[in-house]
Every structure is written in structure tokens, then in C-alpha cells.
Specification:
heterodimer; A: mainly alpha; B: Rossmann fold; Alpha-Beta Plaits; six-stranded mixed sheet; four-stranded antiparallel sheet
Chain lengths: ~260, ~300
């Protein structure tokens, strides 16, 4: 029993934590929404159409597709990854250390797990919205060939969570942001460039190919491409899916412990 | 004594090898203003976090509103207000949204949140600044907002960790005034402080903590009567060490203490003692007679001053 029922709004605790992020986003949504709509158009125009022109002139099709079609799904999942990264490091460290707003939250009926779930569901919400916009833009560029493409927004959510889960867990243990820039320089940027994102895995030297396949983003890219064209070997797709789900689940399980240790011990 | 609102037995909090709180017993009645007094590092904040139903004790037991906070945390916290030592407001949001956001955390209906936000803005004298970003407020305003925010759920028990640390005298008096009003309305207050005057002003009863233990407990006046003399003579000599004067001063008072910057004589009649000292030919650079305070109690009990 919390406060008497008649004076309660009836939201679950994690939903109240979700609402906090929504409220915060409400202050800055204009700039953010413009980016969500415009960046896909810019990227597809510049890389898909612009660079695609060169690719067409030199090598023709890439894996049987125009370059635009080839990279459109990668752009969607890399954007989802970047959302997961950007939302999970500095904002979380600020909330547990600098501004301590998560500490404020757990002085109310919210538990640390509610704060974590509220955060991740909020990031997932944004990723879903971003994924829908991206899918529509890709469609407008004529790069969707299957009903499976309708799963792209869900893939966006899963990709975001596969990064946000472990990174939030990590950020709640951090004492400073020194390691965050290192992560960007030596992990996120290389991952963005070398996950078979902009050229097929076949064009990597043989000894590098297994390495590429270890990278989480590679699996999201592979799934995105499969969804856009509506084909792919079921076993391989299941393996890709498993990697992303495993990262998400591991992130949540570890995060539950780390956020509790940080906020209430 | 009326209904007990909070009861703790053998409370211990350990961080690795470090024992921050080493076995504390307290019992606080509904409507009381209760203080935890002690220097930095005495274990006050760790104690506050346990009795705020946030951090679980390493051992010992707590009942708040008759509930166990380790199993009923959300239910206990829904009836508490907590003002942390450092403001943890949402700096980018407006004053109003900070209050509304907390209302959400307590799952209050929209209508109730709107009503209370209006009342609390007035209570904290922030109605004019309602739409301003918190980042632009002064330290005193932020503190008042933090207190207002802690009242959004109309708590039965308000816990304040060093509510006026870092505020100027005017801001402190304004805050004290707001806390009196809450007390008058029947809210139970628990306050930590290392300011003696604050403890004397706000607390019906208090405990003095040192090194994670309670070293004294009682009403401020009773503690002073019990552990100190009626008056204190403070003498400053032009010397590097007031210790040197302990022997010379010993005949003038039942108890003499030397601090780095002054000597303290604990006596019943300060003026008479000061007269005797001057008559003996001693020439302190400055002399002051004052009433005993909680600071003296603390010095007596721990051999140290409260604010280093």
C-alpha cells in the first residue's frame, strides 16, 4: 500500500520513471525531431545517391543491389546504435553522479530497477519513433522490397537496447567520463565504419572477416539488410538475432545490480 | 509519549572494511523534531539514508510507520519527504516541472499535482520564478525548492540532511521559518546538522554522533545542563599555543579546555571569573563571557570541536 488508492493516478513505478524522461525530452524535442527526420534524408541523399553514383560507375551493383539499397538498412541500424550510445553514457553518469537526479528518484517510491527500466523503455520508445521515420524515408527512396521491411522499426529498438543495456550498466559504475571518449574513439567509431556497414564483408581481407563478425553492430546490419530485401538464411538470421537479444538481456541483468549498488548502497 | 513514528535498534552500516554507523538506537515520536548532530564523517548521512528507506542497514532493524523499509521500501517512501545534503534538482527543467515531476513519482493524480504545486510554490516563495529554469536560481532558492519538492506527497515525516549548509544567514532564517510552520502543522522532522544554533533552534530532542556512535541524547537545554556549566569564559592570548595557559588558568575554573585559538573556562558565573583573572594580573588579548552551547557539550564528550 502506498498512498490511499483514490488519490493515485495508477501508473506502474517504471512508467513514472519513463514519464520523467518524456517530460525532460518535452523540453528539447523540437531540435531532436528535426534531426530524426532530416538526418536520414541527408545520409541517404549524400551516401546512397551521391556515393552510390560513383559505385555504380565503378563496380555496378553491390551484392546484387544498388549502393543506395545496400546501405539504407545499415544507416538505420547505425543510427539506432548511436542513439543507444548517446543516451547511455554521459546522461546516466550525470544522473548518478553530477546532478544526482536518479538519487532523487529513489528517495520516492521508485526502486533502482524502476529507474533502469524507465530509462531503457524510454530509449526504446525514441528508437521506435526514429526507426519508423527512417523506414518511411528509406521507403520513399525506393529501397524497400519486402513486407519484412515493416520489422525495421523493431530492429531499430533491439539494436538500441543491445547497446543501451550494457552501456547503462557500465555508466552506473563509472566515476568519471574519461573512458567514454575512449570508447567512442576506439570502439564505436570503428564499429560504425567496419561492420560491413558501407561495404560487404566479402571485401574485407580474409583474416579480418571473423573479426568483423564478432562486432555487435555487424549482426544488426545483417538483419537490417535481410529485412529490407525479405530474404536470408533462417539459421544465420536467428544467430544474428540471438546476439542482439543476448546483449540486451545481459545489459539488463548486470544493470539491475550495478544501478542498485550505485544508488542505494 | 505519543505514537512512535520511527524506531531503530542496533543500526550498523558497513562499506567494505569501513564501519560508518556502529550500532545506533533511536526512537522518534510523531510530531517531534529530532536532530542528529555531529561533525563531518560522524555517520549522519549514512544514518539518514537508512532511515529514509533508501539504503539497507548492514545489520540491525528499523521500523518506520510500523513497516520494515527493507521489505516495504516503496510504501514507506510514499509517506516520507527527503531533503538530501546536496540539491539534486533537474537543472534544465523549470521550477514548476521539478515539482510536477516529483508528483508523478508519487503517482499523484494530475489535479492534485497542480493544486499542490501552486501551494508549494507559494510556501517556498517561488511563485514568481515558477517558469524559470532551476539552473538560474540562487542557492537559497534551490534549497527551498528541494524542500518544497519533498513536500509534494504531504509526508508525515520529513528528513533533512544539513538543510542550511552553505546558505547565507538570511536564507537560513527563511528556511527555519518554513520548517517551524511544518512542525506546527504536525509534520515530524528529522534534521542532521553540524550547526549548533540550528540544532538549538529546530530540535526538541537530539542525539550527538561521533565516529558512528551516539555519544549523548536529550533535549538541547538538558544536554547543556548535564554536560556543561552555565557559562563559558573564552580567552585569547597572544601565543602560539593556548595549552601553555592550562596550568595558569586551572585555579579559576572547575574545567579548562585549550583550543588552537582560545582557552575555554567552564564556570557558573563568567563575569566573576573574568574579574578574578584580570585581578590576578593575567592579560588576555580578548575575553568573552557567553552561555554554554551544544558546541561545549560536543567538545566535552568528544574532545573535539564540531566544525573544523
Amino acid at each position: 500500500m502506498e498512498t490511499p488508492l483514490e488519490s493515485r493516478a495508477g501508473w506502474a513505478r517504471w512508467q513514472r520513471a519513463w514519464w520523467y524522461h518524456a517530460m525532460q525530452y518535452g523540453q528539447t524535442w523540437r531540435g531532436s525531431v528535426a534531426g530524426t527526420v532530416l538526418f536520414p534524408i541527408f545520409y541517404l541523399a549524400a551516401m546512397g545517391v551521391g556515393v552510390g553514383h560513383l559505385v555504380a560507375a565503378h563496380t555496378g551493383l553491390v551484392q546484387g543491389q544498388t549502393y543506395l539499397h545496400f546501405i539504407a538498412p545499415s544507416l538505420l541500424v547505425t543510427t539506432a546504435m548511436q542513439l543507444g550510445e548517446g543516451e547511455s553514457l554521459w546522461p546516466v553518469l550525470a544522473a548518478v553522479k553530477w546532478v544526482r537526479t536518479y538519487h532523487a528518484a529513489v528517495s520516492t517510491p521508485l526502486e533502482p530497477e524502476d529507474v533502469l527500466v524507465g530509462k531503457l523503455t524510454w530509449v526504446a520508445t525514441r528508437s521506435l519513433a526514429g526507426g519508423i521515420v527512417y523506414t518511411v524515408v528509406i521507403g520513399a527512396f525506393g529501397a524497400l522490397h519486402s513486407w519484412w521491411a515493416l520489422t525495421l522499426p523493431l530492429l531499430s529498438v533491439l539494436t538500441t537496447l543491445a547497446f543501451a543495456g550494457p552501456l547503462v550498466a557500465y555508466a552506473t559504475t563509472a566515476e568519471s567520463d574519461a573512458s567514454f571518449s575512449t570508447l567512442y574513439r576506439f570502439a564505436f567509431v570503428p564499429m560504425f565504419l567496419f561492420s560491413a556497414t558501407f561495404f560487404p564483408v566479402a571485401s574485407y581481407p580474409g583474416y579480418l572477416r571473423p573479426l568483423v563478425q564478432l562486432v555487435p553492430l555487424y549482426h544488426a546490419v545483417a538483419l537490417g539488410r535481410a529485412a529490407a530485401v525479405g530474404s536470408g538464411a533462417p539459421a544465420a538470421l536467428a544467430a544474428h538475432l540471438l546476439v542482439l537479444v543476448a546483449l540486451t538481456v545481459a545489459g539488463v541483468l548486470v544493470g539491475r545490480r550495478t544501478i542498485r549498488r550505485r544508488l542505494v548502497d | 509519549m505519543s505514537e512512535t513514528i520511527l524506531e531503530a535498534h542496533g543500526l550498523v552500516k558497513r562499506f567494505g572494511d569501513f564501519e560508518a554507523v556502529r550500532g545506533i538506537d533511536v526512537s522518534i515520536a510523531r510530531g517531534e523534531s529530532f536532530g542528529f548532530l555531529g561533525p563531518n564523517g560522524a555517520g549522519k548521512t549514512s544514518t539518514m539514508r537508512m532511515i529514509s528507506a533508501v539504503s539497507a542497514p548492514t545489520s540491525g532493524s528499523i521500523r518506520i510507520f510500523g513497516l520494515d523499509p527493507t521489505t516495504d521500501g516503496p510504501a514507506v517512501r510514499s509517506r516520507l519527504g527527503v531533503v538530501p545534503q546536496e540539491d539534486n534538482l533537474e537543472l534544465e527543467l523549470s521550477v514548476r516541472l521539478n515539482l510536477e515531476m516529483f508528483g508523478r513519482y508519487f503517482d499523484l493524480p494530475r489535479r492534485v499535482i497542480r493544486e499542490r504545486t501552486r501551494e508549494l510554490l507559494a510556501f517556498a516563495q517561488l511563485s514568481e520564478r515558477a517558469e524559470d529554469r532551476v539552473d538560474d536560481l540562487s542557492g537559497g532558492m534551490k534549497r527551498r525548492l528541494t524542500i518544497a519538492r519533498a513536500l509534494i506527497n504531504q509526508p508525515e515525516l520529513l528528513i533533512l540532511d544539513e538543510p542550511t549548509t552553505g546558505l547565507d544567514p538570511q536564507a537560513r532564517h527563511l528556511l527555519w521559518d518554513r520548517l517551524y510552520r511544518l512542525k506546527r502543522d504536525g509534520v515530524t522532522l528529522i534534521v542532521t546538522t553540524h550547526y549548533m544554533d540550528e540544532a538549538e533552534q529546530l530540535c526538541d530532542r537530539l542525539v550527538v554522533m561521533d565516529h558512528g556512535r551516539i555519544v549523548a541524547e536529550g533535549a538541547p537545554r538538558a544536554l547543556i545542563e548535564q554536560h556543561s556549566s552555565r557559562e563559558v569564559v573564552e580567552l585569547r592570548f597572544s601565543t602560539d599555543s593556548h595549552e601553555e595557559f592550562l596550568d595558569v588558568l586551572a585555579p579559576f575554573a572547575p574545567r579548562v579546555e585549550a583550543l588552537p585559538d582560545r582557552a575555554l573556562l567552564y564556570v557558573d558565573d563568567g563575569d566573576a571569573t573574568l574579574h578574578d583573572i584580570h585581578a590576578s594580573g593575567l592579560t588576555p588579548a580578548s575575553a568573552l563571557v557567553r552561555r554554554s552551547s551544544l558546541e561545549d557539550v560536543f567538545l566535552r564528550l568528544t574532545g573535539r570541536t564540531l566544525v573544523d
